[in-house]
């Protein structure tokens, strides 16, 4: 091998080492005469991400990748060619079942990526290759989802929090302002929860709240929304009610579901609930006014001996 070839080989070897050390995934794709795409070169990060092997190169994308992912990528490649410019996008896919030795993911895990694709044209203006840089953004997306969940769901029970409940209630009220219908809001809490919490400790108290949430949820319809506002205060939105009796029946079921002895962390005890109900009867009121009425009804249920429900009534009625 002469000196020129040796130097060329060394330069190529250095290029490959640098190419494979890049953290992001790099793909060089060939545009076939029939319009399909095949990978010509990929760095190690790119190979690991979708399970490419030496046998994968030269084959069409739809032969080596999951159908959905191949369609997405081919569409984006075609878009870059038509625009004759770099494009960027975000997407997701399931890890192919055949990838069992992935460094970070297991088969069927959902992974997210962002990609920039640059088309490469020859002197005749035909696109011959595409250069793509891809970044795995799965961790970022998962963190975004966690933050979104923390903003809308209660950390202890996993139920919708006040923010999400208020949003849903406003939506239902807006529907009823345009169409006839009936909804109800229930305010409820655990009778004597403070005494139970002080006696058994806050850790057991947290378990009681979780169990209470599950018991109540099991009595509701699929479209009902149960939310924890804080402490032992819970609120329920009952949309699309056929009549007031339907809400009263749900309240009765909730009360009855708590008549049995609880057994948590070795403690045996009884705890009941009181419920206040307010109906929306096509009045010109805001969501917070409806909640206030349900809260007043809860107080009235407490005044009447607890372990029961009470429907809000205007004073003097």
UniProtKB/TrEMBL annotation:
<dbReference type="InterPro" id="IPR035965">
    <property type="entry name" value="PAS-like_dom_sf"/>
</dbReference>
<dbReference type="InterPro" id="IPR052163">
    <property type="entry name" value="DGC-Regulatory_Protein"/>
</dbReference>
<feature type="domain" description="GGDEF">
    <location>
        <begin position="181"/>
        <end position="314"/>
    </location>
</feature>
<dbReference type="InterPro" id="IPR029787">
    <property type="entry name" value="Nucleotide_cyclase"/>
</dbReference>
<dbReference type="InterPro" id="IPR013656">
    <property type="entry name" value="PAS_4"/>
</dbReference>
<dbReference type="InterPro" id="IPR000160">
    <property type="entry name" value="GGDEF_dom"/>
</dbReference>
<protein>
    <submittedName>
        <fullName>Diguanylate cyclase</fullName>
    </submittedName>
</protein>
<feature type="domain" description="PAC">
    <location>
        <begin position="93"/>
        <end position="149"/>
    </location>
</feature>
<dbReference type="InterPro" id="IPR043128">
    <property type="entry name" value="Rev_trsase/Diguanyl_cyclase"/>
</dbReference>
<dbReference type="InterPro" id="IPR000700">
    <property type="entry name" value="PAS-assoc_C"/>
</dbReference>
<dbReference type="Pfam" id="PF00990">
    <property type="entry name" value="GGDEF"/>
</dbReference>
<dbReference type="Pfam" id="PF08448">
    <property type="entry name" value="PAS_4"/>
</dbReference>
<dbReference type="InterPro" id="IPR000014">
    <property type="entry name" value="PAS"/>
</dbReference>
């Amino acid at each position: 091998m002469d000196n020129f070839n040796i130097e060329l080989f060394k330069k190529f070897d250095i290029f490959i080492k640098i190419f494979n050390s890049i953290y992001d995934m790099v793909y060089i794709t060939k545009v076939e005469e029939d319009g399909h795409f095949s990978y010509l070169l990929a760095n190690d990060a790119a190979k690991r991400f979708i399970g490419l092997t030496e046998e994968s190169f030269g084959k069409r994308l739809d032969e080596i990748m999951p159908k959905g992912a191949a369609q997405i990528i081919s569409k984006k490649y075609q878009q870059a060619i038509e625009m004759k410019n770099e494009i960027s996008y975000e997407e997701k896919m399931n890890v192919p079942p055949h990838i069992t030795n992935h460094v970070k993911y297991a088969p069927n895990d959902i992974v997210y990526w962002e990609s920039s694709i640059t088309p490469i044209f020859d002197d005749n203006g035909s696109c011959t290759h595409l250069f793509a840089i891809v970044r795995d953004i799965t961790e970022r997306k998962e963190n975004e989802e966690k933050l979104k969940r923390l903003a809308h769901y209660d950390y202890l029970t996993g139920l919708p929090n006040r923010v999400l409940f208020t949003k849903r209630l406003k939506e239902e009220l807006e529907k009823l302002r345009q169409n006839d219908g009936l909804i109800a809001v229930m305010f409820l809490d655990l009778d004597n929860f403070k005494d139970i919490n002080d006696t058994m400790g806050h850790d057991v108290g947290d378990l009681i709240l979780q169990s209470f949430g599950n018991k109540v949820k099991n009595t509701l319809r699929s479209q009902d929304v149960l939310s924890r506002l804080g402490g032992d205060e819970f609120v329920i939105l009952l949309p699309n009610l056929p009549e007031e009796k339907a809400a009263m029946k749900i309240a009765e079921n909730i009360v009855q579901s708590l008549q049995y002895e609880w057994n948590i962390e070795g403690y045996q005890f009884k705890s009941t609930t009181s419920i206040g109900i307010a109906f929306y009867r096509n009045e010109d009121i805001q969501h917070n006014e409806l909640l206030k009425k349900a809260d007043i009804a809860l107080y009235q249920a407490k005044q009447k001996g607890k372990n029961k429900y009470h429907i809000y009534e205007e004073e003097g009625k």
